[in-house]
Amino acid sequence: MVGTGGTLVVTQGSLTGQRLELEGDLVIGREGVAVTIDDPELSRRHAAVRPVDGGFEVEDLGSLNGTFVNGQRIEGPTKLSGGDTIKVGQNVLELEVAGAPATVISPAFTPGPTPATAAPAAAPPTAPAVSAAPAEPFGTYAVPHTKRSRGIASRQWGPMLLSWAVVAGTAVALAIYFADH
């Protein structure tokens, strides 16, 4: 049976709070994909999340900066479980699976009245405090700029400067020529 009922929740990045239903292959990237994210660290077609037998998997599509599951860079299709995090560029997505048990702390239920002679019930356990700012789950990650291919504009500086040098040289030569004649 192919996994159904999954949702990716964006917990960090430009689409924070968005919920992406996993009904088929979901390709994530910068342009021309199902989920377009404006992030210079993403490749055009960065990663794909898809339902497979018994759940879901994520696959890096040859991106330069890689795809991370629970803080580990993946090299091939990687099986996902409910609660797993996927990091692509500066974006973190968390997988929610329908029917997965919720992680809620609640006191045990005691049926019936409590006898008057019984000791008072202990206070229910309290949930740990949650900070308002999300913690960086993957530590510090420096982008390997030496591997990153620069955009077309940065490759055109050399020819542009050469063209301006030729124009300036021609202008100087013409000024000298007409000054002498």
Compact overview of the structure:
The protein is of the alpha+beta class and 181 residues long. The protein is built from 2 helices and 11 strands, in the order βββββββββββαα.
Please write out the topology.
Blueprint: E1 6-12, E2 19-22, E3 26-29, E4 35-36, E5 47-52, E6 55-60, E7 67-69, E8 72-73, E9 78-80, E10 85-88, E11 91-97, H1 152-155, H2 157-180
Parallel strand pairs: 3-4
Antiparallel strand pairs: 1-2, 1-11, 3-5, 5-6, 6-9, 7-8, 7-10, 10-11
- Biggest beta sheet summary: 6 strands, antiparallel
Q: How many E-type strands?
A: 11
Q: How do the helices and strands follow one another from N- to C-terminus?
A: EEEEEEEEEEEHH
Beta content comes to: 25-35%
Strand order in space, largest sheet? 2-1-11-10-7-8
Would you give an account of this structure?
- The radius of gyration is 28 Å and the shape is rod-shaped.
- The protein has helices spanning 152-155, 157-180, and strands at residues 6-12, 19-22, 26-29, 35-36, 47-52, 55-60, 67-69, 72-73, 78-80, 85-88, 91-97.
- The strands form two sheets. It has a six-stranded antiparallel sheet, with no helix packed on it. A five-stranded mixed sheet has the order 4-3-5-6-9, with no helix packed on it.
- A hairpin with a 2-residue loop joins strand 7 and strand 8 (72-73).
- It is 15% helix and 27% strand.
- By secondary structure, the protein is of the alpha+beta class.
- The N and C termini lie far apart (89 Å).
